[in-house]
Design brief:
Length: 89
């Protein structure tokens, strides 16, 4: 299992209900599941769980980008997450 090296980004004493903390927590879970799926490619339940967590994180990031663009940009930079593609009609 991969050792978590992202603990210093967001302090643990911070409000655990904040959007930043939730995105941080989901990111750690995503990275853990991704490393697990590299070893166990046919673990379909873990793949489904990964997709669910990705969707939750995507919705939280969309919410944060609408509410506070500065905090969104800082969080994306700290966690080294790509910005999601936007749909243009």
């Amino acid at each position: 299992m991969v050792k978590n090296s992202f603990n210093s980004v967001i302090p643990q004493e911070e409000n655990r209900g904040s959007v930043e903390f939730q995105v941080f927590n989901f990111t750690n879970k995503i990275r853990r599941l991704t490393s697990h799926l590299e070893l166990h490619r046919k673990d379909y339940l873990s793949q489904r769980g990964l997709r669910r967590i990705l969707g939750k994180r995507q919705r939280l990031l969309a919410y944060l980008s609408k509410k506070n663009r500065v905090r969104y940009k800082e969080l994306i930079g700290q966690l080294d997450i790509r910005e999601p593609k936007t749909r243009e009609f």
